[in-house]
């Protein structure tokens, strides 16, 4: 197999990409797909990212036969949606006009994201006058009672009824616009949109339905209570647990939607197990979450971005650790964890414990490397602390002073050299400039240790991250090889400390650590993978299970999967600490090779590939609704996207071999990971013409 073929053979078995015809076949067959979510053009949670990133692939497949339905939120619409009526000859326009005739405010337009999909937004306030009537209809048919005081559920009822009424009108009108029999599929996300599905089935509308749960409602509540969730799934008294938490009616709405849908899906195998026990229905199809992947034209480009972003982080570190810069930034690794501030669910507890053990391992081994571990969780604060701001000001003053003196030295050197002689040292650095430098150096000294947090955290005595750091005695002591920084705020370019957004920060780090206990999918490690950054995940996250299924040796591709399901907490912490220590032992060349491998996995997470599972779910529901459309044999989704073990030894060091991976008979890391002279330069090895470039 040639080196070029080797690049692509991993996905040769993929099929279904010929369906990306921008809706031509769907138009001829009169197929329509509605995707319904409370987070369509409404950024309130993680499902927004799922819907938003999938739009481009959905439009590539279905064109204008694909329509999003969501609630009308004035603040979001101003910046995210271009409002405007659809063409007059469209059945969508006829259905919209019918609803407007009933006094409902309906807003069609296009969502301003990749793909520019059609979207219809419903102003639920315009239907609120008949709320009691809709709730009574729901109760008469399902015996689900909605408390008057639950505003969120009342809004879900209004939204669901408006969506169902629109689809009912559309189904009645669409027969007048084509000779082909209409095939309509409505895909609902989460319990907040589930009332629409329930209403469609109550009214026997001729539409195929799909319901996707991204995380069960009760599962989130149970895990928030610090219970041994996965080992007791079959032991919970579901009704009692939901009633005790005051969410029984919401749980019933979710369970009803799951059972009434023609096709039920979850985002991962682990969530499917959860749904089978809590919702009492096994998912028909797993629909993993993807990303809108944009590949670089050359492999070395993302490596260059890593170097540029890392330098920005270096600038922050110089300011934060001023007076204690006794470590070499060229031998410093940046780890991070980020997400919602759910201390146990996100695995921050075992992350901090593993960092303490890693600190011990590194000191015992005598390594000259340093690890700086970031924890980015939004928490209540009283703004930045003084020490963090002072550090950035001190280093900026020193940097500006040096730049000014450099310019003056250069000018004096130029003038003296014009006279035909070399300048003396006294002529280069004047006495007053030496004094300026000394003042800056003295200002950069301090007695207190660098702070472990960048902000003044409210109620810091009960903050779980700070308490865990205190318990593990991670105080940024000069003798520690692991330093910690808790940043209780999401990153943005306006941040006065970092001055970079989250994506840029991730690119500059070396390893993302996400040892989550409850993570139905896990976008944070997926985003790391797409950006070529290795990550740690677990076998209790959807992402970790997905990677374990499709990759023969995930660790060789920079995906470290911690076992949090079949072993105890102590063993999980030990495994995480050992994996972190093994990563620290990698040399620069091995890390570059591993980043190249990690970036290759991005094709696994591309919606153009994973969208096939959504297509399979729609075909499944249409086959149930219209038996003549049922496939002769079960569709295979995206196939098994196997990534075999790399042709060379995995880059993790072991005691039985040298730090540089040993070549194998069939290939080497160079063959497996390098395909251009630019990459050879990155690795600092001889290129084809014999020249050598030193590795940074």
Automatic annotation (TrEMBL):
Biased composition (Acidic residues): 667-682
Annotated metabolic or biological route of this protein: Glycan biosynthesis; glycogen biosynthesis
The organism's place on the tree of life at top rank: Eukaryota
EC number: 2.4.1.11
Region spans: Disordered: 639-696
InterPro entries listed in its UniProt record: Glycogen_synth (IPR008631)
Keyword set, alphabetical order: Glycogen biosynthesis, Glycosyltransferase, Phosphoprotein, Transferase
Reactions it catalyzes: [(1->4)-alpha-D-glucosyl](n) + UDP-alpha-D-glucose = [(1->4)-alpha-D-glucosyl](n+1) + UDP + H(+)
UniProt family annotation: Belongs to the glycosyltransferase 3 family.
Family matches, as PANTHER family: GLYCOGEN [STARCH] SYNTHASE, GLYCOGEN SYNTHASE
Protein name: Glycogen [starch] synthase
